[in-house]
Amino acid sequence: MIRLDKVSKRYPGQDRAAVDRLSLDVRAGETVVLLGPSGCGKTTTLRLINRLIEPTEGRILLDGEDVTRVNPDRLRRRIGYVIQQVGLFPHMTVADNIGLIPRTLGWDKRRVRERVDHLLDLVGLDPAAFRRRYPKELSGGQQQRIGVARALAADPPVMLMDEPFGAIDPITRERLQSEFLGIQAKIRKTIVLVTHDVAEAVRLGDRIAVFTEGARIAQYDTPARILAAPADEFVASFLGDGTAIRGLRLAPVGTLALDPVVPVPPGQEPSASGSGPRAVRVDAEGRVLRWPGPDGARDLARVRADQTLYDALDAMLRARQDTVAVVDESDRPLGALTWASVLRSLPAPGGAS
Ligand SMILES: Nc1ncnc2c1ncn2[C@@H]1O[C@H](COP(=O)(O)OP(=O)(O)OP(=O)(O)O)[C@@H](O)[C@H]1O
Asked: Strand 31-35 to strand 190-195: parallel, antiparallel, or no bridges (unpaired)?
């Protein structure tokens, strides 16, 4: 979908190239995060893709077409662009800001209005309450949502996002990240997103390109593999401490082979044999209550199948138990995980899984 082929950018008067022969492929529908320290060339790379900056050498292909041969205005209609400072026009309403590109494309008023309302809905803002407001009447997080809506206005297949959640408080930032994931699951754009925040990269990226100076790729892989096996000292130190624990957040419990459990309804007793599947006491509706035996008086550690290994270990630690019941949305048992089975499921460092 997007291919950078030995692309370099040398700014006038600089001895070193800001981007030095970078080759990078981004597949259709995936989110690739460019991650790296300040000044390593992330923003320059992003702006080369939509030709806000012209490359000194190399080729950039969008769907096989060399972008340097496309009229820049036409190119930018195919590429949405979201930046940290948002850049909303202060004298225009929310609706006018979002509808800007569709209007320049000559859409009629009604189509623009419908598109604006649809996008406000998509980014979680009530159209009736927000379409007539001015940017100064919005919180930082709301402005950021409008920035995303505006970039999506003409339904471009590609989105470039430069620190889109950078200037926002941590709680709103987490919420915007969740919304981003929800929206991307629906619309499946091809996204290149710049951040220097490791947690954000791990959360949002299907793949992460870790850059060193000159936009040289230190590692380009899935978050899980980068966390499990950093390619070198630079990547390891940039990721910082806690990589193994962070990796656990990427693995949903439901993808593991669970140990079977046998539900024991009220009035019945678990079978006495010591071997075989573990019994779990359930109520009349089949919802898990507790383990039988000496542990049974205590709260039972439980996680839903859509939670992660991180949550499973956290539940075990909090309950001080070495087994966690895995339940469905109605709290009915699906199986169990032990501390040992979680450890066994982890990818080996350097391994392929
Ligand atoms: N217009 C410019 N003229 C000269 N040098 C520039 C220009 N823009 C960027 N640079 C230099 O190019 C290098 C890469 O900058 P770039 O903004 O791409 O890095 P970045 O990884 O996005 O950094 P940050 O995370 O701090 O935003 C830096 O050394 C920077 O000083």
From this structure: parallel
